């Protein structure tokens, strides 16, 4: 009987913590692709004009006369569409925004989620390596604050032994 009560307690605690997670920030339009930037880069013509919701960490911002580009290292998204920065990256992409974007408002390393449509690709470089960047014509972008990134994640850890954790 005690084991059943403990199992029930763990289940209720897990459900309670899951209920704290924020809702997704964007409505997922019909036809939204569930592929990574790396997969799209391998055959961009196959995915032309498809809607995507991608996120990751900002690499850099480049401003041009009539638009700005944000290079992003893509990461998988959680159920709230936040980038999971501790997971392996899934390729890079470029979010294309109309007008001027202040690079200080989009600092390198900041977590971002982009909603938009694929708009071709561009050959470029990552270090000395050739790279194909999928282009996303961004309809919306969301920069995540530290508080938003931590929301819905318990700050409790269980384990056996001795250890040091740095957050």
Written account of the structure:
- The chain is of the alpha+beta class and 167 residues long.
- The chain has helices at 2-19, 37-42, 146-150; strands spanning 51-63, 67-75, 92-98, 111-126, 129-143.
- The chain has one domain (21-149): OB fold (Dihydrolipoamide Acetyltransferase, E2P).
- A five-stranded mixed barrel has the order 1-2-3-5-4.
- It is globular and about 50 Å long.
- It starts with a helix and ends in a 17-residue tail after the last helix.
- The relative contact order is 0.19.
Key terms for this structure?
167 residues, 5-stranded mixed β-barrel, 3 helices, 36% strand, globular
Order of helices and strands: HHEEEEEH
Supply the number of structural domains.
1
N- to C-terminal separation? 38 Å
Poorly predicted runs of 5 or more residues:
7-19
Helix content: 10-25%
Percent of residues in beta strands? 35-45%
CATH architecture descriptor name? Beta Barrel
Would you identify the CATH H-level superfamily? Nucleic acid-binding proteins
Q: Could you please say which CATH topology applies here?
A: OB fold (Dihydrolipoamide Acetyltransferase, E2P)
Radius of gyration: 19 Å
Structural class: alpha+beta
* Biggest sheet: strand arrangement: 1-2-3-5-4
Give a short account of the largest sheet: 5 strands, mixed, barrel
Global outline? globular
Mean pLDDT: 85
Tally of contiguous helical segments: 3
CATH level 1 class label: Mainly Beta
How many beta-strand segments? 5
């Amino acid at each position: 009987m005690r084991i059943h009560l403990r199992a029930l307690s763990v289940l209720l605690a897990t459900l309670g913590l899951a209920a704290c997670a924020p809702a997704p920030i964007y409505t997922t339009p019909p036809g939204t692709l569930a592929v990574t930037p790396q997969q799209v880069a391998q055959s961009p013509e196959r995915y032309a004009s498809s809607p995507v919701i991608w996120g990751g960490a900002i690499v850099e911002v480049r401003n041009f006369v009539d638009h700005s580009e944000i290079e992003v290292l893509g990461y998988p998204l959680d159920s709230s569409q936040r980038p999971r920065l501790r997971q392996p990256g899934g390729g890079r992409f470029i979010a294309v925004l109309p007008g001027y974007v202040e690079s200080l408002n989009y600092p390198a390393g900041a977590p971002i989620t982009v909603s938009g449509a694929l708009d071709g690709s561009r050959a470029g470089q990552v270090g000395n390596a050739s790279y194909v960047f999928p282009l996303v014509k961004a309809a919306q972008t969301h920069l995540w604050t530290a508080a938003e990134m931590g929301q819905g994640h318990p700050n409790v850890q269980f384990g056996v032994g001795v250890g040091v954790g740095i957050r």
